[in-house]
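Annotators were shown the component list below and the corresponding predicted structure, then asked to write short factual statements about the assembly.
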Amino acid sequence: MRNEGLAGRGSGNWRSRLINPVLDKEFRLRMRTARSMWTMFAYLFAIGLMALCAIYLTQELGSSSASFNPERSRILFYFLSFAQLGLITFMAPGLTAGVISGEREKQTLNLLLTTQQSSTTIILSKLVSSLGFMVLIVVSTIPVYSMVFLYGGISPSQLFQVFIYYFFMMIMLGSLGILFSTLFKRTMISVIVTYGVTLFIYVGTLLIFYVALSVTGNAANNAVNPAVYNWIGHILAWNPGVALYTILDPSAAGQIYEIYNRGQQASQKPVFQLWHEFMIIYALISAGALWLSIVKLRPRLKRRNK
Amino acid sequence: MTHTTTEMEQVIEPAETPMIEIRGLTKSFGTFQALKSIDLTIAKGTVFGFVGPNGAGKSTTMSILATLMAPSSGYAKVDGFDVTEYPAEVRKRIGYMPDFFGVYDQFKTLEYMHFYGASYGIPKQEREQLIPQLLELVNLSDKKEAYVDTLSRGMKQRLCLARCLVHDPDLLILDEPASGLDPRARIEMREILRELKAMGKTIIISSHILPELAEMVDEIGVIEHGQMIAKGNVADIQNRMRVKRILSIRLIDRAEEAEHWLREQPFVNRVLRDERGIHVHYSGHDEEQANLLQQMIGAGYKLISFSEGQTNLEDIFLEITKGGEAIS
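Structure shown to annotators:
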């Protein structure tokens, strides 16, 4: 019964190189439950409903004479993009915050940890499988987005950028979810903490921005030329909503960095787009979260004292 | 199911490395000391029974051996590999079955086995030959297409045991493998373990069915309050213990009175009473035993039976752990 071929795993087999056993298991088990189907149904229903509401409102509130109105299309696109961001923000922690703690609660984690699968493989497979499902859902909303092309006003490259941003957000929120799932034994606590941190990223960063603005505002009022670069704008680079807005409206970044610029063109083009800065910050945070998850998954086996 | 280690290799091996070597192993959880300097050596091919009450430290020791927990001090080696320094090497050599475990309910039995086989790096072609053999070993061949969710507890236990064997480990660490099983499932589990013993596996097993496994366990270790209070060959420990024989006595009446009377008699180490009668741990010889019977009758007790039973591991365990004193 001796298996000599431990090292011979997947030799020449592309599938076994791309899909390791943990990933294979995750894909199979995730897509085998009715829950996945209902999640996708609920998501598409929600985004479809929002799109219909947005079309109705823009038709009702807008000028009825204009049958072709790119501005209306842009508003619809903005609305759908933010709605999608909201849904991703709601979904990603829910899909990832229980992946490790759930295994621990089901008492399957210890069995998995005694196999030859490395901590890195386990954590990354969990992330990729969750991402795979989220990507499936988000890609399935593309037909809804196609509505904005009926009216024009949005370039495919802009749509592409927005979807890249969504993918990044899934990785970011997924990494945080997996980190807390690894750190906390109970899924309930992990989910609460993940949503709490997510809420802070959205609301807390805005509050910090406004507090910083009000603290420094009085001094700046006396400035000779207020429309100059100010570091406070960088606080908004921590906020996903603002980052999305700067993708949709690239000229906004310059105004944000020059925070006292009231609706004028920015005096100089920013070195970084705000969403670039956002991605750099959160790419580092995500990498840190994944690294910590990998380190904390297995107990630290101390070297014995000799 | 043959081992690649040939007899020739075994002969030329200068001094065989023990399968398990534990020295001064301690584990603390805050102020609570779960293990207090455990020493243990288990030779290859040995079936070792790990006995102790709940919370004694059995599962902690086994978790350390399974690389799931770091010791506070001391060391544990599996086949010469320190569990803290070479965990990957240790994992290749062990099959671990925890006392409580879960299964992926959405998997079919065959998929479950393939998942763990793949997780141990066994190529698919090899798995397809191996897994049916393992399912046959644990009598689950007819359930290979069944969802794990639909299996009984006993079947899940056997499936978990088959999972432990998928990478052909040299050492099986089985933590209470028969807990919660009905008598029939226990017998099936015992038969499988007997087959594994015949295959030459080293097995460390903690179980409530240890008395039933007495004939297949080569050595036992008794642990209590984190200390190994007795270890060695079953017969040796039995000889070292004061327990020589168990006397089973049934009376028409006055059983409670007789229980107290017996406690006062010489060579009586322990008296237990249940619905089946009075059980006396007796260290006297035949003559003293005959005298005891005579005195009982003389004292006016109406005896239905006075018989001598055999001591088993449970009796030894009870005898050892009653005082908590170490037996060297």
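Statements collected:
1. Residues 1-12 of chain A have pLDDT under 50 and may be disordered.
2. Chain A touches chain B at residues 1-11, 16, 20-22, 24-25, 28-29, 32-33, 106-108, 110-117, 298-305 (CB under 8 Å).
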